[in-house]
Every structure is written in structure tokens, then in C-alpha cells.
Amino acid sequence: MNFATHFRGAASIRAIFSTPPPRSPSFVRVVEALKTFADQRGTPKEQVAIAWVASHPAVTAPIIGARNVEQLEASLKSVEIEMTPALRAEVSALSPA
Fold it and tell me: Which end of the chain is less packed: N or C, by CB atoms within 10 Å?
């Protein structure tokens, strides 16, 4: 029995992996704040987020999860952002502690 057949009775495997996670109001507020922050600087929010994660000392490499070449190319441009300590603090302040 393969994985998809095993779970067919409970739910289709496609439904399990294609259902987006629930989005809490606080999550939405953080994403909206990041979008505003990034728009004010003329940079896509995804690039700011990736640069922020990559600047964390405990992170070796951020996992970007690009689904196509366009997303990959856009994500790779995050290396062009100089994530200074001051900028990192600004981005960090967008999310409640």
C-alpha cells in the first residue's frame, strides 16, 4: 500500500498538502507591516524576509521554497540587501516579541 492509498479514506493526499495553514490575525498584521515596510524601501517583502532570516547568526542558509524559476530568481536577490544591525532591528520590531 502506498502513502496516497493509505490516506485516501481519511482525506486525499492532495488536500493534505495543498491546504494553506490557518492565518491568525497577528500573522496577517505582521505580513501587512512587512509589506508596508518593504514597499517604502522599494523592495519586495519576500526579499526583506529572506535577508532578515539569513542575517540571523544561528541560520546557515534560509530555506526559500521557490516553486518556479521566477520565485527563485526573486528570492536570490535578497543577497543584495545589506541587513545591518539597525535594519534587522527595524524588521524585528514589526513582529511582537
Answer: C
Q: Write a three-state SS string for the chain.
A: CCHHHHHCCCCCHHHHHHCCCCCCHHHHHHHHHHHHHHHHCCCCHHHHHHHHHHCCCCCCCCCCCCCCHHHHHHHHHHHHCCCCHHHHHHHHCCCCC
- Report yes or no: 64 and 50 within 8 Å, Cβ to Cβ: yes
Contacts of 75 by beta carbon, 8 Å cutoff, 6+ apart: 46, 47, 50, 64, 66
Q: What predicted TM-score, i.e. pTM, was given to this entire model?
A: 0.74
Dihedral sign of CA atoms 95, 38, 44, 48 in order: negative
Measured from the Cβ of residue 36, the count of other Cβ atoms closer than 10 Å reads 11
Q: Residue 42 is placed in which grid cell?
A: 522599494
76: its cell numbers: 536570490
Q: What distance in Å separates the CA atoms of residue 54 and residue 63, rounded to the nearest whole number?
A: 9
Confirm if 50 and 78 have CB atoms less than 8 A apart: yes
